[in-house]
Amino acid sequence: MKNWRYIDQKEMSASKGLATDEYLTNLHTNEVGSEYPAILRLYNYKDHSVLVGRFQDINAEIDIDKCKELDFGFGRRLTGGGAILMGANQLGICFTTSQQEFPWEHISELYTKLSAPILDALKELGIEATFRSKNDLEVEGKKIAGLGVYISPNGAIQFHASLLLDFDIDVMLKVLKIPIQKYSDKRKIASIEQRLTSINRELSTEVNMTDLKSVILRKYAEAFDKSFEAQNISTEEQKLIDHIASETYENENWIFQRSPQADMTGVSLKKTPAGLLRTYIGLKGENIKSVLITGDFLDQEEMLSEIESKLKWSPLDKEHIAQVVDKVVLEYSSNNSSSHLLGNDDIVNAIWIASQRALAEKRYTYNGSCYYPKAEV
To answer: What are phi and psi of 136, to 5 degrees?
Structure first.
């Protein structure tokens, strides 16, 4: 029985941290192959790094100018979900493997199976947390960890978790565009505290990062009855990681992708069971010039791109929009095992609301993050 690999890292930059996760994921593709069937990487970022989900509009989620002013790193990860603030007191958990090692039919199986050791670790520390569909771990309704899964075209699996050992609300409010700007500072903090918690907030004694990593590592070993072999990133591996960082995670084409077109004139924001749905639309008279659908849903980029493509330069007619959406969703769902698909009505209504706002010649700005999603209908 082959051992699994364990990597412990500290103070990662945004680009190098994300590039390392991608490199480790790529080791499990058929073309590359890894001597380790699975790899667990536990790490933290420098204070601070701000990361958006794969399908989000970065300009709507984080304050880029403030990040630059504070010298905070920022980037876009492979996995979905919302914008997060990472630093010395937030533990990054990356587990990479292959479908051969972890066969699955529904992506929800991966979330449940791969987050179980984290729940066990929290329980040992004295915290009763639960898995909340779609992609959070929570304690009495408060989020303590965000989860994400990416499946590469070659079947490699990347599981992400951001576990809050502690957090700084003041810093969070400076860089994340959370839709409570009209509140007083006291109300902002109280509102976030109702939705978010951390390990050290739940316990009467403080846990340090070293101890937290130790219990997480042990629980993964126990959960899957495996032994881990600690192996640092080699010099040759670091060269490959640096190349990935330069080509992708430091590349503005990656970081700012899926930002709305400049001629966008209408926007809607809707909370759905599959995630936060943000829709932009550009109109030319009574025709749809462009549609952009983004959000913190997990694995439906191909379906949404197809909807966007089929609606381009089509008449602004709700029945026509519904027909296009119904057809694309039907084709996509028959070939996709995800249990968290966006509903047809959610997509249609989001597009229609955005179009009506465009016709009213009003521009709206809605801000949100994985910590404070707010729906607008």
So the answer is: -135, 155
AA letter at 260: P
For residue 334, CA distances in Å to 109, 151, 221, 328, 337 come to 19, 18, 36, 10, 8
Measured distance CA(215)–CA(122) in Å, rounded: 9
Locate CATH 3.30.390.50 in the chain: 266-359
CATH 3.30.930.10 segments of the chain:
4-255
pLDDT, tens digit, 9 for 90 and up, residues 80-94? 888 999 999 999 999
| 256-278 per-position pLDDT tens digit | 986 655 565 788 988 888 778 88
Identify the CATH homologous superfamily for domain 4-255.
Answer: Bira Bifunctional Protein; Domain 2 (3.30.930.10)
Question: Whole-structure pTM over 0.85, yes or no?
Answer: no
- Report residue 375's pLDDT band, with 50, 70 and 90 as the boundaries: very low
How far is it, in rounded angstroms, from Cα 303 to Cα 110?
A: 21
Whose tokens are 């300009």? That residue is 59
CATH 3.30.390.50 describes domain 266-359? yes
Judged by DSSP in three states, 362 sits in coil
| Bigger pLDDT: 99 vs 299 | 99
Contact 147, 137 (CB under 8 A): yes
Tokens of 375: 């729906």
| Average pLDDT estimate for 153-161 | 91
What's the mean pLDDT in 47-64? 91
Strand duo 287-295 + 156-164: pairing: unpaired
Q: Averaged over 168-195, what is the pLDDT?
A: 77
